Amino acid sequence: MSKKTLEIAALIVILVIPMFLNFYYLWLFCLASIFATYTLSWFLMEKLCGRTSFGHTLPFGLTAYIAAIAIFFKYPLYLMPLIALLVAMVSATIFYATSFLDRVKFVFATFLYSIVLWEFAPFVVIKGDVLYGGEEGFSIPMLPTKAVYLFSSCLLFVTFVFLIVLHNSKLGLKMMAVRDDEEAALAIGINVKQIKVLNCVFSSLFASFAGLMYILHFSHVDPDIFSVENAVFPFIASVFAGGYLVPVIGSYILIFASKYLNSILPQFHLFLYAIILIISPKLRRFSNARG
Amino acid sequence: MKKIAILLITALVVSFVLGCIQQPEVKEVKEIKVGVLVPKTGKFSNAGVLMENAAKLAEKHVEEMGIAKNYKIRLIFADCGDSPETAKSAFLSLANKDVVAIVGAYSSPQAIACADAANQAKIVYIASVASTGQLEKKVKDGNKYVFRNAYNTTYWGILAAEFLRISNAEAYYFQGYSPLKTFNQGMLSEIKKRIDIPLKAEEYYNPKVNPKDVEESAIKAAKVVGDKDVLILGDPGPLSIKFLKTYRQNNGKGIVYSVGGTLALPQVLASINESYYTAFQAAVLKETEKTKFTTKYFKDYKALYGEEANNYAGVLTYDAVLILAQALEKGGEGKLIETLENGEFMGACGVYKFNELHQADWGSEKLKGVIGEWVGKVEVIYPEEYRTSNVLWK
Amino acid sequence: MEINYLIINFFSGIFLALFTIGLISNFKIAKFLNLSYGSFFALGAYVAYHFFLSLHLLSILILLFISSIFGILLYVLLKKIGNDVLSSTIVSLGLGILIEEILRLTHVTGYFLILDVPIKVYEIAGVKMAQWELVQFFMLITILTILYALYKSKYGIKIKFVEEDVELATIYGVNINVYQFSSILLACILSSVLGFLSSTTQAIFPSMGWGVLVSGIIVLAIASQFRLVGFKQYLVLAIVSIAYAEIIGWF
Q1: What CATH code is carried by the domain that includes residue B85?
Q2: Which of A270, B12, B111, B186 is deepest in the core (most CB within 10 A)?
């Protein structure tokens, strides 16, 4: 059995187990699967295009926000994937335009997008019988957690398999060539612009759909979705960079560590998070060296 | 023979007396868990300390005063942090520990997330701080698990309007806080409905965009507000201190009316030179003995924790625990929602009754907010029955 | 806009420029975005709270000591763990959160800390300015003068080299560690001093530096578009900060 097959099998096991657990753990696993998809979308850009983004809250959070507002105005649920698609296209355009900067500036430019969205999201206010939005955010009617989990786990599975297939394909090889050396890739006839566009589109698409899953699962969105914590989440989750399963597991660990530890170590979980942040680059290098 | 007879009679009398003394019934007291969400980490962690201490004090008083004789209430705390995600996760983790009900959380987004979680987990939740109108909307939409013993945004506005009326202010100036604009605007629209005096300006500061925005806003306000005007400060957080200091240092006139929070704490006001003629609202003050719990709350808090008790987030969390204890005693666990909907419950802030939207009936005869004014000590301005002074102008 | 608002916004820009000098120096010389900068600001305020009333200006020595310790810690962590821009930025974020948590855990109270001392106020063109704001103005002038002298000196060319190309500078024998260490240490001290000076005007709490940090990052992002090195970048930064404050103040 190949390594990829084993990884897919392991992922299936991780996705199936929560169906037999109680509501709390199902809810946690659902949140973890959504963030795992978000991390994989980020990883797609980082691993296959060499671009580290701190702005993936742009497709993720914007989709959640716009979907919540659309549902607020009684638009039907089946139109939400269309919103995710539109936001993905807009995000892809922004990421592509930003990719003309060098890699260091790309990081900080995308970080700025997160900060700007975080700053301006509270200004989105709708006047009804009471004021909606602003710092309070938007709520939507709750959906059954099991149904949402089914969709989010399918999305994670599809994203994961897509990444593996892409990695082993001609397109994936071209992306990695562009990642390693854009000029050399251009010299051997690779259409660098097209590759970058495709990479941005795929990455934004999965992040947008993860954002859609987020609002359907959480049934509430507020400006904190654009926070620095969410912006750096994929970077920390993929600390043990290696195969594609590792960022998934990293996401699950981070979600459980931050949410589950709340009730066990309420005073110290942020302390622990800070320690993880500090040592994460060292662990990343250690893992890369071993790989 | 005579001696035997006396002995027998004595034995009979003793047995008779002993038989009359009833042995106390060993009644089974059921241990019940109540969850408390407090912000132990993040930007609201200061309030979290007050809320946790107040909840622990409530647990102690419930036992001491025999409020829930059939139950032994045990509080379980969880950190709701400063984001709705953390709050919801903490809520569900408490639900997983078989709590009967949950109280607390701090901000409005957190309370909204907890209301959803309450509906999903089918557990009663009492919001003890957040003011958002979205909670009542959720009840209207069918969520019967969420209650609120704190004010809603409307009542914040009602209290501010009441102050403007009592003070006979000539005009007012509204200084809001951008990150709480929704709350501020809700409050302001309520003030406008009830008061006809001119609004000189409506401004908001946001220090994230410009770190000196607070000072600039204060200097701007100091130029506009007149001697008989009231400046309504809609920021309950720590930046209100910076605003107040700068405002007064720049000869800011009139009275500053704070929505509460940081500037409603006498301990804080006492430590700021520029705090005179600052009015504020609170759920209760130690000068207003609304019920038997009021003085006990303030006195025991100070004795136990060595600092002054909080008069909003802390006392309302305290009251939320008391309400639950009384509701459990009245109707048991199985009928908690019905009991809360139909009953009356005594707390340190007054007597609570929930309306059809599960909102505590603030503004009723038995439950009113308090307005105080700091002039070196607290003078109670409202309600009438507790008034110690008229509004004092600079 | 009235002249007094122009003056108010001008001093706001001065504070922003002073705050962002450390950020830009870390970004250009030490090659990372210092996300612990806001926590050093809070650290300075806490030092003031504990020591200013008893030791007055001598408390600045304690401030220098404590901020140096944490500044050195940051440098060591960056050298051991952060070997590129991104990693160093993440490490600094972790240290920032750690400092805040230490402050929070060692000051468990329901009340915000307040350092209430009388502040001298001066009137300039009808605008009341606190003494500490004027101090900051002179601090900025002094720092810019020192930077000018530094870049004109024999060290200036080396620092510019480090700013332009670290690898090339290393090849040419520039001891980049010394310059990076100095940049990090001095930036952390500067942020702490600003927090110390600001402590008398606001409530003190662990995350008080975050708002200022966000503004600083926005100004840094604008100023770094000019792609300057040497003294010019600091001069442009000061101008951009003041312009930013004036424009935002106008809105």
Answers
A1: 3.40.50.2300
A2: B111
